[in-house]
Amino acid sequence: MTDVKYRILVVDDEEDLCEILKFNLETEGYEVETANSAEEALKLNLPSFHLLLLDVMMGEMSGFALAKKLKANGATSHIPVIFLTARDTENDLVTGFNLGADDYISKPFSIREVMVRVRAVIRRTADSSQEQPVSMVKYMGLQLNLNNKTVTVDGEVVPFTKTEFELLHTLLDERGRVFSRQELINKVWPSDVLVLDRTVDVNITRLRKKIGPYSKCIVTRLGFGYLFEE
Fold first, then answer.
1. Rg of the chain over all Cα atoms, to the nearest angstrom
2. Among the listed residues 201, 203, 228, the one whose alpha carbon sits nearest the alpha carbon of residue 215
3. Which of 22, 30, 42, 110 is deepest in the core (most CB within 10 A)?
4. Is pTM, for the whole model, over 0.85?
């Protein structure tokens, strides 16, 4: 149940264009999310993406300003950026590449051109970094990033302890299976640590609170244990 895909974020204030790019990129096999402003994009789990397609001219924060902010953050500085813009002056090109852009596509563009450029950038950055695509386990808007050990609930990153993360991973990765408390103890806690059944119950309670609308999916089977039920 673990999905491994290249994830792309398209940020553009033209909703129709976002949907067109999303459809075509997903047809190519990518996992795609969209945002219609830089501010909206900043609310997402940006480190989980392998490529950003940024419109330059947007609302209060431009694509250039967003890229500058991301390049200054160690968690996102490595993510390649392709700028999409109706402005193609020499100054704009220089600004974009000085900010670390990997490519620059002028509007209007053909979808075929974008697909070719995206493949080229992903191939180049994947070869140079030798990083594997982000490994995700997810159910609807509940996502576990197995690479950086983060949990996202409907687009918001929620802090989890190591124990809570491993509990959720165990239940979500084998959803529908009932785990006894002892099975969960064996899978999640170190073998040299004494763990009581009550400790499992307390962590499950905390887990439910943190995943909000998905808390009802963690079901108690009296006398047996816990499961993640769709």
1. 21
2. 228
3. 30
4. no
Pairing of strands 81-85, 31-35: unpaired
**Percent above pLDDT 70 for the chain:** 90
Q: What are the residue ranges of helices labelled H in the chain?
A: 15-27, 38-41, 63-71, 90-98, 111-129, 162-173, 181-188, 197-210
Q: Please name which of 84, 80, 38, 29 lies closest in space to residue 59, comparing C-alpha atoms.
A: 38
* pLDDT over 80 at 107, yes or no: yes
Q: How far apart are the first and last CA of the chain?
A: 13
Reading the block at residue 140, the tokens are 């609807």
Q: DSSP per residue over 130-175, as a string?
A: -PPPPEEEEETTEEEETTTTEEEETTEEE---HHHHHHHHHHHHTT
Q: What are phi and psi of 4, to 5 degrees?
A: -125, 110
Report DSSP letters for 1-32, one per residue.
-EEE--EEEEE-S-HHHHHHHHHHHHHTT-EE
State how far the Cα of 144 lies from the Cα of 168, in Å rounded to an integer: 9
Here the tokens at position 21 are: 């790019």
Give residue for tokens 């789990």.
Answer: 45
